[in-house]
Amino acid sequence: MVEGDALHGWIARCEAGEAKALGERTGLWRVPDPDGDVVVKRFAPRGGLAALGERLFGSRPAARADRAARELSELGIPVPEPLGWATVGSHDYLVTRFVDGVPPGVKLPPRMAQAAGTFVGKLHAAGFLHGDLQLENALRTVDDWVLLDLDRAKRSRRQPPRADRARELATLFRSATAHDPVRFAVWGHFLRGYCRETHEWEPAQRKALTRAALRRLG
pTM of the prediction? Predict the structure, then answer.
């Protein structure tokens, strides 16, 4: 974790308009830095019972995302390097190292579809559910995938039930299809990598997982 002064410096530059806004989203910036650009994400303040629960149970989204990133990094699951989080005024901010991805529209080769399955399989095998596993939260790099937006991530002591995992897989596949029609052959490559990590070796296990995901696709 970097020093608090550095975190507050990056945050101040964002709020002063000295950083580049990323896409059309508000509260998300890329800040140039000699050691590598950083990304600053601002979380909207929450009120009522949600805010009270966050204070009592230490579940503030920025803190949860930072903690999940550190745990996933230790497990060898690619995430942007977590640099820390801070509260400034009424907002929480999360700071990570910037990761450059493959430009949109580049064709997905079979090896990268299988790598995506391996990537998600490792996540689930470690007991994690992402909570919002859409294509925009899985950044494709030249050789791998990087998991983004971890503020909804939850971890249990064991691999999540098939139904919960199928729900996340359906969300991912639906979002991928919305961007670009995905051939179902891609699912086969993806599933090969996924089931290797979740130890679902038997054909019957793969079929059951596929049926569960398809039910949620509708």
Answer: 0.89
